[in-house]
Amino acid sequence: MTLADKNGQIALVTGGGTGVGRAIAKALGGAGYTVVISGRREDVLNSAATELANETGAEFLAVSADVGDPASVRALFDRISEKYGRLDLLVNNAGINVPNVPMEELSFEDWNAIVAANLTGAFLCTQQAFRMMKAQNPRGGRIINNGSISATTPRPNTAPYTATKHAITGLTKSTALDGRHFDIACGQIDIGNASTEMTRKMAKGVAQANGEIAIEPTIDASHIANAVTYMASLPLDANVLTMTVMATKMPFVGRG
């Protein structure tokens, strides 16, 4: 199957108005998908949808949603079902981080916020996608989760973020297993230092495991978008379970 075969298929990218999510949405639109982008800021989403449509010639629909809220997620998927009648691809990209602080200083509110956005949100969207993908004709679809390299290795003082990303790996594997009999494939992309607003601080230096502060290299988010588009291009009898795309010289392999 080639990318051209995706014309007319429907994709949802959560957190699709900015950063990596926006880059993924743009690449999918260029590959022929009709793309729904979701996020919490309606003005940002609407601007992104208009700009992306002009850049790619594809159809983009902006739907504001809080992925950590079950009612909001249901409304998001109801909108997709009503307008398009199916969903072929879900990219669980939405997520947040909280300030890096020693574990004993982390507030319960910050813990709950990051779990809701990074883990509960991915679960709720996966749950709704399963319901649609099982029932639609043709049956099935694909789910791609944004894992981050924190799904493998933590940074200092990042317990909540690292915990949610490790949990995403478990969700990915369970989704891949439970989706087998329904033609639902699930994979995960682990990203290392894509250049976005979230990683801009790396140009000034970030804490390392040995206590030093070091500037880390980043890569253009388009490389992530191209990788996700490749994963999505496969037929449903083939799957990339995990893929790591990272800045070659970032401190990860060998812990430095």
UniProtKB/TrEMBL annotation:
Question: What Gene3D superfamilies would the database entry show?
Answer: NAD(P)-binding Rossmann-like Domain
Q: CDD domains recorded for this chain?
A: SDR_c
Give the record's keywords alphabetically. Answer: Oxidoreductase
Fetch the Pfam families from UniProt.
adh_short
Q: Which domain of life is it from?
A: Bacteria
State whether keyword Lipid biosynthesis applies: no
Protein family according to the UniProt entry: Belongs to the short-chain dehydrogenases/reductases (SDR) family.
The name on file for this protein is NAD(P)-dependent dehydrogenase (Short-subunit alcohol dehydrogenase family)
Please report the organism this UniProt entry assigns to the protein: Neorhizobium huautlense
